[in-house]
Amino acid sequence: MAFESLSERLTSVFKKLRGKGKLNEQDIREAMREVRVALLEADVNYKVAKEFIADVTERAIGQEVMDSLTPAQQVVKIVNDELTALMGGDEAARIRIKAKPPTVIMLCGLQGAGKTTHAAKLAKYFLKEGRRPLLVACDIYRPAAVDQLCIVGEKAGAPVFRLDGEVPEVIAKKAVAHAKDHGNDIVILDTAGRLHVDEALMAELQRIRENVEVDETLLVIDAMAGQDAVNVAKSFADSTGLDGIILTKLDGDTRGGSALSVRTVTGKPIKFAGVGEKLDDLEVFHPSRMASRILGMGDVLTLIEKAQDTADQKLAEQTARRLMQNKFDMNDMLTQFEQVKNMGGAGAMLSMVPGAGRISDDDLAKSEREMLHMKAIIQSMTKAERAKPDLIDPKRKRRIAAGSGTRVEDVNRLLRQYEQMRKLMRQVKKNPRAFGRGMRGFGGMFNNMR
User: Fold this and answer.
1) 299-313, 316-330, 411-425 — which is least confidently predicted?
2) What contacts 96, CB < 8 A, 6 or more positions away?
């Protein structure tokens, strides 16, 4: 999970501050020294960390904190505000869509950063927005690069323009003409990368821009590259000119320092973040939401958006109706597990819930494993048993446990969870106010399986 180590360190610092009640200047300076070390260990650029600490300290030592009834909370608020400002401010930076199509977006970056995959992710993002993107294969050097774009483009549901035997600038020019003729309002150019920044790469990007009116140049960089990512971003910003950044593999970097550094170093906003391997795993980068995640305050808005994108509305209504009619069975329970999986799994969901910063990696891993166990148990049941769990006697329990590779005790726990849900729904029908109380008890579902 991105920023995990930084989040843990900051949570520890703020916990100490809360334990002191009233704060003096020395308390704040000591806390800020710990925050500075945490930032550097998270691979945040040295100058960025130094300026950040100076800004926070200046505000925290002022009357804003000293005269507050909750000084520790005020420090957390200041850190949250400054983190948000560091990553770009309250508003997310969006792609500028031209009134007269097509809008041309050029992706650039080094080899291995994920340009081709994120070109397809970007295309799928625009398809969800109701637009008609066209992917363009401008990487003519890397073996099978064009074929890879065709494969991921097909998975995303977006057409791919290829022109074998031509140079990138000609391919880009003809692709834009093709887009105008075929009604594509977004053109995404997947350009070639290099193992390192060199003059040939920069010259090629410049030739494309001379032949095509590029509206947005987005740099795709690997968040796991740490300080190297920041250096690469600065080189591209100085040589090519950028409009924004796509930060990839943010889900795999527990430090995440590049996300905190790249905006300040380049002066260009992070517009998207790649948070997984699936083509749906692309998020608009919201600095304020990311700051909340870092400080362990969750990201409920992104969780809601993810639910809206992945949930089957018709299926959700059907499940809710069956719940209220007391017809909820094991098939419905299995469907709910699939919905959680589509949202990135229990771990991805919990990471956006306020307070999730206090949940350890081990607990998240156990939650994922327990959900898999519960699915296996349900899948080992017959159709009749899923529809009517009351049929499951001791003999059937032994068979289900053997078929799912679990224990009879695990089968019993799942059946108890199921009964708790049915009981809760009966209470809701009689007294709607019971819903809140019941859901608080149901929150430990995965933990209760252990």
Assistant:
1) 299-313
2) 103, 215, 216, 243
Confidence of residue 335 (pLDDT cuts 50, 70, 90): confident
What beta strand segments (E) does 323-403 contain? none
Rounded Cα–Cα distance for residues 240 and 245 (Å): 13
Relative orientation angle of helices 394-404 and 408-430, to the nearest 10 degrees: 110
Between these two residues, 250 and 355, which has the higher pLDDT value? Answer: 250
Q: How many CA atoms lie within 13 A of 8 on its CB side?
A: 12
Among 276-280, 302-306, 356-360, top mean pLDDT goes to 276-280
| Alpha carbon distance 53, 36 (integer Å) | 6
Tokens at 1, concatenated:
């999970």
In order, the DSSP letters of 80-144 are HHHHHHHTT-SSPP-----SSSPEEEEEE--TTS-HHHHHHHHHHHHHHTT--EEEEEE--SSTT
Return the bridge partners of 104, or none: 187
pLDDT at 441: 40
Nearest by Cα to 161 from 141, 200, 190 = 190
Alpha-carbon distance of 366 to 347, in angstroms, equals: 9
Q: Which contacts qualify for 416-425: CB closer than 8 Å, 24 or more apart?
A: 417/445, 417/448, 417/449, 418/330, 418/333, 418/389, 421/323, 421/328, 421/333, 422/326, 422/328, 425/323, 425/324, 425/326, 425/328
More confident residue, 265 or 173: 173
Residue 129: strand pairing partners: none
Residue 259 carries which side chain, given as an amino acid letter?
Answer: A
282-284 sheet: strands from edge to edge? 160-161, 133-138, 186-191, 103-108, 216-222, 244-248, 270-274, 282-284
Residue 317 has pLDDT above 80, yes or no: no
Show the DSSP H helices in 21-70 as ranges: 25-41, 46-60, 63-66
pTM of structure: 0.67
Distance CA 380, CA 399 (A): 8
Question: What is the C-alpha separation between 1 and 152, in angstroms, rounded?
Answer: 25
Q: What is the mean pLDDT of residues 80-101?
A: 87
